[in-house]
């Protein structure tokens, strides 16, 4: 989870390139490794204690999916990397949760970095770093912490639902990536709801500074989501275009479909972004509208009563010779005059549509 | 109709890729299938009860157009897909109303996804998902629901108007796509009218929050329209450039023309978009102008009467020795003074162009 | 003239592609056809009654320029199209005033669509659709209505000024296009004047809503101009790059020059566009400045007289025991106090630079 | 100097293409021609009376630089053009001060158009049109008027400073262009100073409309600078990439360096542009801040004295039975009450941070 | 340090191209040269007095890193340049602190210009110009002044940490560039902190003009950072793509990784840029909110007391015949009436949510 970048940046400064350093924050206590080993007719699922126990599965024939939770266990990652002959820079990227989504093609394997997005219990966006290594007959997935979006895939393998058991490791990689991307739609949907909520708040009475804060918070979230999602377009496109021997021709069709989904996410993110930016303008006009209303009330009251008060003031003067004061009905006539002024001004404001 | 995305996103999460799931909302009761079978000299039109009845038409020689309404009848779509040998991902895209416009070229057929746009009875934009499969001698169109923009095409086939009966299935696909795109001009026109209406409202007296709301609504609509229309550019361009054997050279000229129309729609959408964004600024200045006017009225009234009231207050004081009070014409002189002040200030405001 | 798009869009919906339908508004009564037939040593100018009379000129050897005014005479256009072997889609584009600028290359001819821009007597922008067909030894120009920018070209041909008489039909096409583009500089200049005028208005006293309206009108005009001019860049570039046998190598140099002019128009349009958008901001600050000034006047008056009025009020109270009232010079002392307050506040505002 | 485009646009409308028409404004009285003739060991500098006197220099072997001031002497330009075999369109571009920067490659020569920028004595931006013709062993520069940025180059040739005397005419062209580009840094610097000055003004007390005007003026200047500078990037890139035999391989390194400088100018212009646009926002917030301050003063004064005045008014009423009026210390008690209210409100505003 | 560009621009105007002129400001007293000479088994570190002492190291076999601090010692740079056969334009770029980041490939060496960014003790951004020359077996780094980000690299060489001692000079170049880029993350982080601080300030009570100033300052800083960082993308990409024989294939993988880091910096800069621009809007709404609040207070007070004051004024009039004045409880009744008005208005404002 890369909520706060400060400590992580610090940790890697001045490091030897290729150093495997975990810069995230979510230190899951134990290393968690589980293995799915399967082909069309065979299926085995194991939870391992030691990373070394995974080696025979990788080397054996059936398709193997090894899922590792806990990027803070860097020695285990390094051991596995050595066994699978992974380049040191790859191991660095697996542990470096700051790494942006990317794909790297090596002779013997493919390396993909993605970001899983969640909204946590406080409705705050949290980002989990996830990497995949696709080798000959195996996929290894490295997750920062427990909890993922792969449960339905596990069930598909377990109960042999769909094509998955009859396809290769490249299809498994596709399916895993697809699950990550599908989950983005959830995220986008929550963003959409948040925007709509805020829009409603704008037109109701709410404490004002909160709204500015909330808009700013949404802006930051959408920018984070963009940063996590946008490089994906290039990643999947590269994967689709790549001539790597590990990617089967049949899988390519599915990758194109995945690319389509990413474009869709892309578009939605852009639309929501524009809408969030628009919220600030809306808010501004709402404030101005309210001020306008306040001003009108003040103006109406002041404009009506200031002249009347002046008149009252005139006849409160102590000149010896003010003839009106001595008329018997002077007081009543004055009330009539003041009523005329009062209703005349009301009528004027009515015509000006201020009332 | 993809008004509200929430339920649809949910439905497909964790699905096996290639699953044919209808995620739209408009559940037309029955499946509706009709067939147009024609060539230069022959014409037949049928409404079918079962999807299986369509097979002989597809396999027969004359050009066949099969139109299917009701994407919720996924089993029928799957059956037809199996008969025509369509890839599972295609079937998924036919039923997935969230799919953005695209074109997919397969060995034996072309697959095109478009969006039909309508304004419904409440003047709300609604989007209908439509897909076309162009095979050897046939076009199948899949519509979400009843009602389309193809009536004039049906008549052209029925009464052999224009070139349509003497051209191939690729020309039919062009004509169908052209009808969808032509309809966009209607949509754009309605948007133009809405913008003009709103502009007029801005300069008249209207309840204010409604206008902000209305502008926000227009923004969302134009963004939706963009999302539906923009990928089309690439779709038609790809279709035009494609070397697929199903597209005749003669039809290519028409596709280029279609591309031209799409560019035109494109430009108009962009212009209207800029104008809608400009509305917010206009609205803001309008509010500010009104506030300015309100402020001026207040200022004029207050500035005139506050000094006068002060003078009246002065001669309302009860000092024993205020010589002015004992002048015989003191009261009248004071009125003169106050009139001078009154008209002096009026003249000052006049010169400042506040009146 | 495509002022109002509504009727035109409607007219073409559901039409057979390639239908020649005039969708403009300016119905010039009669068809007007005139012919310039010339080469280095020969010159003939005729006004024709029937479109058929033009055929011999087209087929004859000297360079022929046929100018046709009145796109509503669609039958005549169709007849000529048949004689020159023009594709139906071309004829549709000639009559369709909504068609954006473009170039189409066919085996035997080139087809170019442009827009002529005018400011009419009410200073409103009006757009005229104009198309050119360049064939072997002839140019046909189709104008919506009478009145064009070609008078100087006619004189150059008549009096054999410059190179025109010794060059081919491709040079004639260049010269005609150049005249259209040159005229854009006039249009841009008028826009520049309008912007400057509006800027001046902003700083003088003017009825406010008019300015917002005027800015919005300018925005629309510049967007229309952009739409008419921007596709031209691609048109001339394509023409320059094209290897079509009808374009002589010598003419290409002139086309490059034309391209240069279009870039220049382009740049100016963009600059004026930015300036028009900036006007809204300027206007906003101007309003705010005025409000600020109004507020200051109110604040100064109110802030000075409200305390004074309070003091007068105090000594207008009827308490039995107010010793000040009985001082012989109490009244005069109070005046002194009030003057001190008055000038003290004036001095305060002076120091705050409000005066 | 192309300050005001109106007359110039008019002058060229309807002209035969290739006409040499000077459209600028700065009519230097006499034609001014001077010649630098040099090679490694030889140097000659002459001021010529007649353009024809330049011919032998051009045709002779040593490197020749002919500088011509006074584009209004179009006949002289045409004569020289004929001698050097220049294309009529080139001659048109030399005299047409509206021509944007460009490069044209011909078989026997290269033609480059640039803009020299100055701030004149009133600190107004003025643009001078300058063109270069690079032929075999000579460079001809055409300037609109006297005064240029080449003095240091003249000295380098005179006193054989640096490489210039031992390099070819292509290097001379580079050196001249480099001088023009170097001068842009001065221009940019002045713009930077103007922006900073304006920023300072924003925070001090200044007459307001002037600032809006000034910002608008800066916007126009930066747009003009952009228009003069931006095409240069392409010009130098083209020159660098060109395979023209007149450009030596050794000079290419210097051209790449020149390209670098242009990029740097480019970046600075863009940054200043963003900053100027930002000034408007800054100004807006400054106005709002001031209004806020004004409002606070008004509110504080009004809010304190209005209730006090009300109280004084109450005890100024003439009811027969107002017991408070008869208390001996009523008046003093009231003063105490009013002081309490006064300081209570002051304290309230203090806590609200309005004071 | 290129804080203020004015003097530097001036210095180079009119210079002979290829002149080695230091235009920076930080004149470190003495030239500082130190040498690291190493291979897998050998290590030597020396501080040199004369630039000439470095020659044997460069010519010897082990990898040599020569670091030079003090660009104002231009003669030393020229001497070294002559020894290493560097092009004069390269020497000019080494000393010209205005030079933007770039890479130049020559036959025998590679030349890279970067910018080191620091925040100095006043938290002001300062930029240091740094260039690298990669030759056969050596890297020379030219720094403007003392102090750099290479300390950890020195230790890695000294204590043979990581791969560095067993790799070539190209890897050393990579490591040095990597250190510069890694440091950018620190800079970005500080920018992030500053933005957050400013955001917090916005919602608290602060002197207003400072915030506008501060936002403007941040804008300028982020623009400077962009200018320093953005060209890097192209630099590293070119280095990665280059087929230069000095770059080993193994090092290329590391360069790709460096490219990745630069993209990440890039993205962060863009995000912070958007956020800084957003701050201005936030500030604007904050001001408006405050003004709205001020207005409400004024309106409430004025609206309540103006009518009450009017009533008091009425009964302060001196008409002979005002019957109410003679009622025994008139005064008390009036108080009741005034309380009713008072609380009625309070209730009205409560319902309007102004309180």
UniProtKB/TrEMBL annotation, chains A, B, C, D, E:
<dbReference type="InterPro" id="IPR045863">
    <property type="entry name" value="CorA_TM1_TM2"/>
</dbReference>
<keyword id="KW-0812">Transmembrane</keyword>
<dbReference type="GO" id="GO:0050897">
    <property type="term" value="F:cobalt ion binding"/>
</dbReference>
<dbReference type="InterPro" id="IPR045861">
    <property type="entry name" value="CorA_cytoplasmic_dom"/>
</dbReference>
<protein>
    <recommendedName>
        <fullName>Magnesium transport protein CorA</fullName>
    </recommendedName>
</protein>
<comment type="function">
    <text>Mediates influx of magnesium ions.</text>
</comment>
<dbReference type="GO" id="GO:0015095">
    <property type="term" value="F:magnesium ion transmembrane transporter activity"/>
</dbReference>
<dbReference type="InterPro" id="IPR004488">
    <property type="entry name" value="Mg/Co-transport_prot_CorA"/>
</dbReference>
<dbReference type="Pfam" id="PF01544">
    <property type="entry name" value="CorA"/>
</dbReference>
<keyword id="KW-0406">Ion transport</keyword>
<comment type="similarity">
    <text>Belongs to the CorA metal ion transporter (MIT) (TC 1.A.35) family.</text>
</comment>
<feature type="transmembrane region" description="Helical">
    <location>
        <begin position="329"/>
        <end position="349"/>
    </location>
</feature>
<dbReference type="GO" id="GO:0005886">
    <property type="term" value="C:plasma membrane"/>
</dbReference>
<keyword id="KW-0175">Coiled coil</keyword>
<keyword id="KW-0472">Membrane</keyword>
<dbReference type="InterPro" id="IPR002523">
    <property type="entry name" value="MgTranspt_CorA/ZnTranspt_ZntB"/>
</dbReference>
<feature type="transmembrane region" description="Helical">
    <location>
        <begin position="297"/>
        <end position="317"/>
    </location>
</feature>
<keyword id="KW-0460">Magnesium</keyword>
<dbReference type="GO" id="GO:0015087">
    <property type="term" value="F:cobalt ion transmembrane transporter activity"/>
</dbReference>
<keyword id="KW-0813">Transport</keyword>
<keyword id="KW-1133">Transmembrane helix</keyword>
<keyword id="KW-1003">Cell membrane</keyword>
<dbReference type="GO" id="GO:0000287">
    <property type="term" value="F:magnesium ion binding"/>
</dbReference>
<feature type="coiled-coil region">
    <location>
        <begin position="188"/>
        <end position="228"/>
    </location>
</feature>
């Amino acid at each position: 989870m890369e909520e706060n970048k400060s400590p992580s940046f610090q940790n890697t400064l001045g490091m030897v390139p290729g150093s495997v350093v975990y810069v995230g924050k979510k230190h899951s206590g134990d290393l968690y490794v589980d293995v799915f080993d399967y082909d069309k007719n065979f299926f085995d699922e194991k939870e391992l204690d030691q990373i070394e126990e995974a080696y025979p599965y990788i080397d054996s024939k059936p398709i193997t999916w090894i899922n590792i939770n806990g990027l803070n266990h860097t020695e285990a990652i390094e051991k596995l990397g050595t066994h699978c002959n992974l380049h040191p820079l790859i191991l660095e990227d697996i542990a470096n949760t700051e790494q942006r989504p990317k794909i790297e093609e090596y002779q013997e394997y493919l390396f993909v970095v993605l970001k899983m997005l969640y909204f946590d219990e406080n409705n705050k966006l949290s980002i989990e770093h996830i990497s995949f290594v696709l080798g000959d007959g195996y996929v290894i997935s490295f997750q920062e912490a427990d909890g993922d979006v792969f449960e339905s895939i596990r069930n598909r393998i377990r109960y042999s639902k769909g094509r998955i058991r009859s396809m290769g490791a490249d299809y498994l990689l596709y399916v895993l990536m697809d699950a990550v991307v599908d989950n983005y739609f959830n995220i986008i949907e929550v963003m959409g709801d948040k925007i709509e909520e805020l829009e409603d708040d704008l037109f109701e009475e709410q404490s004002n500074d909160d709204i500015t804060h909330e808009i700013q918070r949404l802006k930051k979230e959408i920018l984070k989501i963009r940063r996590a999602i946008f490089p994906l377009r290039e990643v999947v496109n590269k994967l689709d275009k790549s001539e790597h021997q590990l990617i089967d021709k049949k899988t390519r069709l599915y990758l194109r479909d995945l690319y389509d989904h990413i474009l869709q996410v892309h578009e939605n993110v852009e639309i929501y972004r524009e809408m969030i930016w628009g919220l600030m303008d809306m808010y501004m006009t709402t404030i101005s509208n309210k001020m306008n209303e306040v001003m009108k009330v003040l103006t109406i009251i002041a404009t009506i009563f200031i002249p009347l008060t002046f008149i009252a003031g005139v006849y409160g003067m102590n000149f010896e010779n003010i003839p009106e004061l001595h008329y018997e009905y002077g007081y009543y006539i004055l009330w009539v005059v003041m009523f005329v002024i009062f209703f005349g001004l009301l009528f004027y404001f009515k015509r000006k549509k201020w009332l």
